[in-house]
Amino acid sequence: MKVKSAAEQLVDRLITAIALGALLPGQKLPPEREFAARLNVSRTTLRDALHQLESLGYVSITRGRSGGVRVHSTWGPESGSHIRSMLLPRWQHLTWLFDLTRSLLPMIAGIAAQRRTDEHIRKIWAAVEAYEKAVDDRDEMRTADHTLHSAIADATGNPYYVSIDSQLRIQLTFGTDSLPYDTDIRQRALDDHRAIAHAIEAGDSARASELTLHHFVDLAEKPMLRLRERVEAAGASESS
Q1: What is the pTM of this model?
Q2: What are the residues whose beta carbons fall under 8 Å from the beta carbon of 166, sequence distance 6 or more?
Q3: Of the residues 84, 107, 134, which one is the last residue of a structural domain?
Q4: Interatomic CA distance for residues 191 and 108, integer angstroms
Q5: What are 63-92's pLDDT values in tens digits?
Q6: How many other CB atoms are there within 10 angstroms of residue 79's CB atom?
Q7: Given 52, 84, 116, which residue is the final one in a domain?
Q8: What pLDDT, in 10s, does the model give residues 18-54?
Q9: Domain limits at 167?
C-alpha cells in the first residue's frame, strides 16, 4: 500500500473536518501561517494540501490583498474514500479519546462550579454572549466557543485543567479547533452554553457535569459516529 504524503494526509483531515461541518461552505480559512500552526504542519504541506483541495473542488483560492482560501463544497465524489482513510485507521484512538473526554470535561465543569469566582462568572457569560452574537462569522463563533470552554476550565483555578481542555479540543477536531456545526447544532449549543453557565454560577456541580456530558456526546461524539456510518455505508455500496 502506498504511504500517503503529509499533504495527502492533511487533505484527508480537512475533507473530514469539512464533512463534519467544522469548516463550512463560504468560510474563509485563516491566513496560511496561522492555519499551519493550528494544524501543526509546515506551511509547504498546508499549501500543497490546499491546492489539492482546490483541484478536487472543496476550496477556492483567490490571490491578491482581498484574496484567500474559502471552503466551496461539503461533499465530493471521493469524500467517502478520503474520510475512510482518515477515520477508520484512527477509530480506536478516537474511541479512547471519546472515553477520556466523557470523563474529564464533566469533571472540569463540576470543579468549576465549586471554585468559580465572580470574575470567572463574568468571563463565562461574556463568552456565552459572544457566541450568541457571532451569527454569520464562523471564525468568531469558533473563538467564542473556545473562549467559553477555556473560561470554564480556568474557573477550576488549576492551569492543568485548562491545558487538558485545550488538548482534547485539538485532538477531537483534527487540529482545526472547530467542532461540528449546522443550524440545529448551533441552537443546541446556545441552549447548552447558557444552561451550563447558569449551573456553574449557581454552584451546582452535578448539574454542570451532567449538562457538559450531554453537550459533548450530542454535539461532538455523535456527529463523528454518524459520519463513520455514512462513509461505511457508502463504501459497502461502492463495493457491491
Answers
A1: 0.88
A2: 150, 153
A3: 84
A4: 19
A5: 877 789 999 888 888 899 999 999 999 999
A6: 21
A7: 84
A8: 999 888 888 899 999 999 999 999 999 999 999 999 9
A9: 91-228
